[in-house]
Design brief:
Strand order of the largest sheet: 3-2-1-4-5
Structural class: alpha/beta
Distance between the termini: 25 Å
Strand content: 15-25%
Shape: globular
Largest sheet: 5 strands, mixed
Order of helices and strands: EEEHHEHEHEEEHHHHEHEH
Number of helices: 10
Radius of gyration: 20 Å
């Protein structure tokens, strides 16, 4: 089944061709440079940029895969969650394309798609692993930090969620308050490599309290230390700032990994999935791998390129939905800025 996937939930316009487990093309146009000066994503700017890019990106994905519109078996598009104006760009484009080409269209939950990202392959590479279910998936993407039990590729049960800031938001907001710019994940990780996480031992919110998360207090703790130590007066590469970045990252990583392993034990999982943008963090990947090995679990993590938002994961999940006989999306279907995974 050859599927065109389209993604525009936030600040990446993406298109991909997926067929029988293989990602034939994956094209992404990032908007980071457009939003950097504002310290975060501006919804109106994001929507306009998606409008300018979605047609070109889709054509490029088809060209790179060596396929034509007439060869498609279906189209998959992110229906939510995300910025509603941004979501509507790819959704309306996909509706028009599906109608014109008489193709089935399926709406994909962006967060759910992240959890399936480890199970895709590129042509010429080793075949993606076939997991033994049930799994527990930790999806740490943008405004989402959620734990799910996966009984198969399509059946999810939510086990935990963030009660305030998601981990990705905490990275971005912490970087901003430390004067490090946007986006914050990569710069904090880079600085943390030079720092000592024991210099500033930050709290681990809700570490042993159920499977929900909370990161707003951790962000406040960083701000207090930043002010008390007058770090605004320090240059951006000062070692004290590196220590603070390391302390913050260590706290987030410990909470995420502890909760993931606790969820695996509670759910009787045979493996664990770590996915989403924050899953690109090297310290988190290493800590999760170590903890999973200790618990006798296999850890499934996507390649770095598929941690961030992409359309390959949308096409992948869409292909599975269509193959399972899920009804095609109606042309009157709406976007869901908030959409819980069932």
């Amino acid at each position: 089944m050859l599927i065109l996937g389209l993604e525009s939930s936030c600040d990446e316009t993406a298109a991909s061709l997926y067929e029988d487990g293989l990602v034939l093309s994956s094209v992404i146009r990032s908007q980071v440079d457009l939003h950097r000066q504002y310290g975060g994503v501006v919804p109106e700017i994001a929507s306009r940029a998606h409008l300018e890019a979605v047609d070109l990106i889709s054509r490029k994905a088809l060209d790179e895969a060596g396929r034509t519109l007439n060869q498609l078996d279906g189209i998959a598009v992110t229906q939510g969650p995300g910025l509603v104006g941004a979501l509507l760009v790819a959704m309306n484009f996909a509706k028009g394309l599906a109608f014109a080409a008489n193709l089935p269209l399926t709406g994909v939950n962006h967060v759910k798609a992240h959890a399936l990202a480890p199970f895709m392959s590129l042509p010429g590479e080793d075949t993606a692993p076939e997991p033994q279910f049930p799994l527990v998936a930790l999806v740490v993407s943008g405004g989402h930090t959620n734990l799910y039990r996966m009984d198969d590729y399509l059946t999810f049960t939510q086990l935990g969620r963030t009660r305030d800031d998601a981990a990705g938001e905490a990275f971005d907001k912490t970087a901003k308050l430390m004067g490090l710019g946007y986006p914050g994940g990569q710069v904090i990780e880079t600085m943390a490599e030079r720092g000592d996480p024991e210099i500033f031992r930050l709290p681990r919110p809700m570490l042993r309290e159920g499977l929900d998360f909370s990161f707003s207090g951790l962000k406040t703790g960083v701000l207090t230390l930043y002010r008390n130590h007058k770090l605004a007066e320090k240059p951006a590469d000062d070692i004290t700032l590196c220590h603070l970045a390391a302390g913050f990252q260590a706290a987030v990583v410990e909470v995420l990994v502890t909760k993931l392993m606790a969820a695996c034990a509670a759910a009787g999982a045979k493996g664990a999935v770590l996915a989403g943008g924050v899953a690109a963090n090297g310290a988190l990947r290493r800590a999760a791998e170590k903890a999973a090995k200790k618990q006798g679990l296999r850890l499934y993590v996507p390649p770095l390129a598929w941690c961030a938002d992409n359309a390959a994961m949308i096409a992948h999940l869409g292909a599975r939905q269509l193959a399972a006989g899920q009804p095609p999306l109606e042309l009157s279907a709406e976007a869901f800025p908030r959409w819980q995974v069932a």
